[in-house]
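P.,

For your records, the input lines for the assembly:
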Amino acid sequence: MKTIIIVFLALYMSGCSQKLVRVMPYEKEYFAQDKMSLSPIPEQSEQEGHVFLIREASAGGNSSFQGGCGCR
Amino acid sequence: MKKSIILIALSVALFGAPRVGDKAVEFTLASLYNQTHFVKSDSFQGRVILLNLWASWCSGCQEEMPLFVKLQKEYPKEKFEIVLSSIDNKIQGALDFLAEVDKEKSLTSLYDGDKKLPKAYRCPGMPSSFLIDKDGKIVEVYVGSLDEEAMKELKEKIKALLGV
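Structure tokens returned:
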């Protein structure tokens, strides 16, 4: 009897903890907003990447083409 | 011992999500276009319905919505009805999106700001759609957006349920 109650409580509590930790798909409205993305302004991140490549003289470092001259 | 088993069985029954073959969850939700007008799930009795839980911020929901508009136009609402339940925090997002996609308001749109339905169904993903027969039983559960191919299969199931 005691074992059953303990097993039941363990299962019950683990269910609760999972719910506390896990964000359900229908609760992800704020995560879906543009400002939550890693690069909220795509044009800005592209421009920054371009500047980075020129300054580091490593054009081609983030893709499979171009020769690394920084003259793109 | 018996009591414990009954207790466990009851708990599972209470907390388990409805599955195929189970009775669909009953609800009373406000209409998206007129929030003073409430719609009860009973009002769909005798019709085959596709209950779609969606949100304007969900890209999958946006993709499948034009297909739903097209599908609804193929069937009279007395026989088959697509019931949308928006779970947006702000109703305006849903209204703005539908104003573009469903200009004729052909889809029955409800608003579930408290997310009662996804909680009750324990939606594992967004969007989620539930095909419900005339008796209010869940026939099929679709998690994720439906594409053209899935829509063909859905149509076959609708036809079978309608007996046409």
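Two observations worth noting. Helices of chain B lie at 2-15, 59-74, 91-101, 116-121, 148-162. The domain at 19-162 of chain B is CATH 3.40.30.10 (Glutaredoxin).

Regards
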